[in-house]
# Entry
Amino acid sequence: MTFDLAQREAHWRKTRNLMIGHLIIWFIFAFVIHWFAAPLNNISFFGWPLGYYMSAQGSLAIFVIQLFFFNRQQHAIDTQFGVAEDE
Amino acid sequence: MGMQWEGKTFVENLPKIYGVYTGGFLAFFFLMAWFESMGMGADTIGILFVAFTIGIYAFIGILSRTMAVEAYYVAGRSVPPVFNGMATAADWMSGASFVAMAGGIFMAGHGYMAFVVGWTGGYILVATLMAPYLRKFGCYTVPDFIGTRYGGKLTRFAAILVLVVASFTYVTAQITATGTIAARALQIPFAVGVWFGLAGILVCSMLGGMRAVTWTQVAQYIVLIIAYLIPIFWMSMAQGFGPLPQLQYGPAVERIMELEPIIGVGTLTAQESIRGLSTLSTLHATPREGAMAAWQFVTLVACMMIGTASLPHILMRYFTTPSVRAARNSVAWSLFFIFLLYFSAPALATFSKLQMIDPSLPTAIIGQPIESVLALDWIQKWSAIGLLAIVDSNGDGILQINEFYLNPDIIVLATPEMAGLPYVISGLVAAGGMAAAMSTADGLLLAMANALSHDLYYKIIDPKAETRKRLLTSRVLLLLIGAGGALVASMQLTGILGAVAWAFCFAMSGLFFPLVLGVWWKRANRAGALAGMLVGLFVGWWYLVAVRNPDAWYGIAAPWLGLNDLRFGIVGITASLIAMVVVTLLTPAPDAETQAMVDEVRIPRGDTIIAAKQ
# Structure
């Protein structure tokens, strides 16, 4: 299978969009949520004040899950364009 | 004769090897617990724990010695993602994470959680922006990427400079931590403990380079995570919080928030000043009010995250996987293994605090008669070595929150004792702290020695040097840098946490944009990268010095926007970005060959860039 310029660009565009999408989620759970920690603390989440919970567990768990998803998505993109590595 | 360190059989055997190892370590732990019940002294148990674990690391280190370049620099690029994840987690979690984190959360409350968020979320940047591409590049070191992508000896040299500044700042903190723990567990003076710790660190890395460091780090991860989690589970069972405290401590947080106004946390302030100790005066889960507090939280998070993605000793771990996809998977596993410790630390801090302040628990000390508190074993033990103090400032004979002074580091170490757990737990915790500090120190020392031997000596000074000479140089450098680090550590200049945060800020100021834009911006060129590294490093450096010396001629009266010395990376990285973009746009685009190289980096398939160039 040939990998011409158009495909190269399409592959990189998809890769870049995936990266941007994940960085948006990252930005929300790394910064935005914690900016509003004080008001969020008024909400109770299984006994935790929500603002505290997000910094102690919530954001962390989302980061972990997010990365496993990211890997699957990026691999799907690479496979689609035939640029994944041979196993 | 020699052991097989690569290939299918070795990889297939890995779960078995480390399974047996984990079982062996647990068996050792229960054996020690039994010895203790038979009357063995606490000192002997501490010594046995530290000696046994260091002995194993040394054994792995000696067994995996090598004279092959690929094995020495990148562990033969054969480390499976899950194991590389464990090694990275050990590489990552320093003595500070292990010993100081729970105590920091205990004392500083929500503000300290910025470290918890920052030291995990950085891996999103590593996975999306860096690791897979650096792996495809096929370099041995981080300066190797900079030097090849942008070309030029000066660029390579600038990258070495940033790497050494950041890593050396960090490694002194780690050697300090090994010294502190070794001194306490083996009952030797701190200055001797530092050199003892260094010997343990070097035996893991000198003979086998990256290969030895990888397999000892996996072993160290297993020890450190067991040592962190067992006390938490045990304590939680003993105190009736349930078997999985990490998922159940919400009500404990609420209870603390209820008790805080009653016992006067945040309203009663300390009357005395005792060096190294302080009283609890920050609310547990309530953030400080106002936009400035929120700004300081997110800027600290940003520094820790971007620093994570720029620290060479972490990035180089992803050079060791067999493929680009494996590098990516390995980042996710790293974060998972790090998560296991970081989501437990706040739970530990919460339980430990509740035990001290909740009058309905038998362990409570706040609000109790001072006489009976002073009679407690753990209070006597820790006050004897100056890590805890009780002063009845108002003379009423009752312990108030502002009369109880402590050093935050003792939370991890003293909580098991407070809960009445046997001494064997303290031995275990000492071994875990030692593993955390040693593994990080090894990664850092190797990152520096490799950059100096591969990039400075081989690529810049003597490109004709033979393999033997290169690897010998690297080993001599390990020894010299290690000795330098131990020397600085024995002078005890800065606190552990300050040095760690500075290392992150240095790395992000100098390396983040040259690395990211090297992949993501084809137009980025040599002059731009050079400007980005040097301007970033020097502006960051100047700001650090200026903000700490407001009265000097180069000083600044007040931090800009509340960016204190822990956050100087924000200033450095901004300067780095501006310098890199402006200089790049003012100078010609890189040649067609370089642009084609960037295209190749962006797809996983095919030879590495370095291999294709040769």
